[in-house]
Task: structure prediction
Amino acid sequence: MKLKHHSSQRQFRTLTEALLAAPQDRPFITDWIDEDEIHTVTFGEFTRAARLRAVALRKLGVKFGETVIVVMPQGIPLMTTFAGAMLLGAIPTILAYPSFKVDAAKYKSGLMGVSRNLRAAFVVVDDGFPEDLIAHVSAADGARVVRTSEMSLEVDESDFPDITNSPDGLAFIQHSAGTTGLQKGVALTHRAVLTQLDHLAKAIAITSEDRIYSWLPLYHDMGLIACFMLPLVHHVPVIMQSPLEWVMRPGTMLELISTYRCTLAWVPNFALQFLARRVRPEDRSRYELSSLRGLINCSEPVRAASIDEFITAYERHGLDSKALKSSYAMAENVFGVTQSEITGSPRRIWVDGRRLAQTNVAVPVSNTAAQALCFVSSGRCLSGNSVRIVSPARQDLSDYEVGEIVIRSDSLFDGYYNRPDLSAAVCIDGWYWTGDLGFCADGELYVTGRKKDLIIVAGKNIYPQDIEEIVSRHPAIHDGRVVAFGLYNEERGTEDIVVAAELENGVRTDIKEIERNIRDAIVSELDVAPRAVFLKPPAWIVKSTAGKPARSTTRDKLLHEHLELA
Amino acid sequence: MEDAQSKEYVQRMIDYVVSEVIQRPVELNADTLLVSSGLIDSLALVNILQYLEDVTHMRIPASKVQPKDMDSVALMLATARRVGKPRK
Result:
């Protein structure tokens, strides 16, 4: 099955041209730290700050075409440094800033691996960046580490160099999501980014009336492309807060959307459940969410239960249920591949779970049928994008047949930065083999899971997400903190299912009962029994840089702690 | 902070870390290193920071907290004093 959409026209040739053409007085970024500290800049102020950063970087020796790593806390100075490097014709890339909730040893090794691969000439860190981490970002020979206080902004804007970026020159490097250290660089040209933004803007029907809300990290494509580059090119305001602040106080997202009348936001699926469960009902009366026309569920498989939970929680606070959208996106394609209809809700279909597991075919059934599994569409291809569903024998599959999702587009990368070894296996004849599984139906894409995570039990294909969703429903389990994986059992000659789930804070009693309930729910819904269910204390599950449970790292941690599983 | 109040905060934080995070008997004092010593996982720090806000009645902007600020109960309380704001 092949889904295809053709290209459309663009207005600007480069991202920097788009920035410089922005209306000077229009608000651009509002960085909300807390109720007492809110920083807002117009496009004019932002551009001027970016030009000053460009002059300062140039004085420090940064040259056209050189890679500049930026490791700064999320905020306007990070964004102006990034834009300043682009104005200079350098190639910036944002890496995650050390956070108290990320393991220091993992952060150090990740930073070392990623910065070594980038071979950057310059690394810009803020003054608060820990001294002991400097060595981990200066791995490239001759790389210079600069603290922001060394970048004197007492420069003359007239010193701004006369540089014209080329549409086919590299604009920046973003990184694919993954556990720290395994992230792969994706170098993108101005043309590729603008092409993607053009298609995306058309699909979501963006206008100058829109306002974007974001807590997404800028080192991730969803934050960088949808919530920084899209508003930069389309000249719309963005209201942002730090990811950590959102995790601490998720309700602030809804407060900001209400206050600033935001119309668009992107979130990973788990955030919907998190917002439905973590915000106290008594705090919700001050939310007024009617301005929201697109809350786009992206970057992990879209789950109907999470969408419904969010709608139930916030419909009475002005939320239009049709605002919940879905998209399939990845850094390798700049961002979006598909997008659900902007005027309606994403389609849902129910399929026979037993036949799906046994035959890899999604056979539609009624939503009340026994073992009916619900899948939410990720929508149709954006302009210029094509999707194929391919079998392990590399044959194209028909509608409803599950296989690997393979994509091609006019914004697709041509390989991982400095990693031809990783690129050859996934970039074949102009198509990118995503490693995701899914099926197409009636011109829309349904994502079912990751190929490498699929659990095969006696010939039945079980998606770990299905198990994780069932386990997450238990009230004693922390939402979204569940990992299921397959473990090969030599005696049985097939895989066993193993589940690790985090208990909610304060849950002490009835552990056996909780475990039994979870087992019963899995057996009843999926017709398979897990070999082991491990209930772990809060914060035990390992998370990826994108904040999602990292299945393979968590698996390794569990096997290390439970040698009896080996 | 008053000395007696400070002592009470320290004790409440220690009690929380032992009972809710480490979940086994362990000797802790205000200066015991928690994350760098491997006693607790850094992922637990979000819950600890929320509890710190409850104990101190402060609002602590998470974006202003660095890893080194959370490595002991004494450092956490110093962080609350440094960047915390009275709750509204």
Observations:
- Chain B touches chain A through 27 residues (CB under 8 Å).
